[in-house]
Design a protein that fits this description.
The structure is a single chain. This protein is mainly alpha-helical. The chain is built from nine helices and four strands; from the N terminus they run αααββααααβααβ. The strands form two sheets. A two-stranded antiparallel ribbon has the order 1-2. Strand 1 and strand 2 form a beta hairpin. The longest helix has 25 residues. The radius of gyration is 19 Å and the shape is elongated. It starts with a helix and ends in a 20-residue tail after the last strand. 32% of the residues are buried.
């Protein structure tokens, strides 16, 4: 069975974001094919996609390498987030389904509960799921794709601290959900912009991550796209 290139792409991207592949390190097709248990064809396609996304760059005499983004490029990501997340929230207010609302409300309840208990690691995951669901509720494939790529890059370049007042942060997400439920696009937009601005201070630029050497094959049943 031919392993789809998007599964290989997701696996390589995950390894770049998590620091398995150090910034600036070479990405040879032969080594990657062996690592993920695939042929060189899907690896080649995946590298082209990752280059278009900004995770990989091609250097003369070196070939494909992990990109080395500048601090300015990292700062641009937060500015893009400030533009795109409010737009997604505004569109979600007019396009969300009842299923989206159910998930958003459930995540808010869980987030508020974990905030009271001081479970910071859970809050990071729940916050990511909330923003992913909000983007999905926009029903805009192009916008969803941009926000997905943006989340990957922010996770790659930044460590995000738990808010000093997590209960307040989750109250903000609850208010965004209420605005989306009422179909109030402008309020959903403004609340999301305010939440994004307040979260900027929790982002800390990462240094180059240490290289890890574990090997694994691509799992097509669970690989993310």
């Amino acid at each position: 069975m031919r392993i789809p290139a998007h599964s290989v792409c997701a696996a390589i991207r995950d390894d770049i974001v998590s620091g398995v592949f150090e910034r600036g390190s070479r990405l040879t097709e032969e080594v990657l094919a062996r690592r993920y248990g695939v042929s060189r064809v899907p690896v080649r396609e995946a590298l082209r996609t990752l280059e278009s996304e900004g995770f990989v760059t091609t250097r003369r005499h070196a070939g494909a390498c992990v990109a080395e983004p500048t601090d300015l490029e990292a700062a641009d990501l937060l500015e893009l987030r400030l533009l795109l997340e409010p737009l997604a929230a505004a569109r979600a207010a007019g396009r969300r389904s009842e299923a989206h609302l159910k998930v958003l409300r459930g995540l808010v309840r869980l987030g508020q509960d974990r905030a009271r208990r001081g479970q910071g690691e859970d809050l990071r995951s729940l916050g990511g799921w909330f923003h992913e669901t909000l983007a999905q509720a926009s029903a805009s494939p192009g916008l969803i794709a941009l926000l997905t790529q943006l989340r990957h890059k922010v996770a790659w370049m930044y460590a995000v601290e738990v808010p000093a007042r997590p209960a307040e942060a989750w109250a903000e997400l609850g208010a965004i959900t209420d605005a989306v439920a009422r179909g109030d696009a402008e309020r959903a937009r403004s609340l999301t912009a305010l939440h994004a601005e307040r979260s900027f201070s929790a982002h800390r630029l990462r240094g180059p991550a240490p290289v890890r050497t574990s090997q694994h094959a691509v799992n097509t049943a669970s690989a993310r796209t």
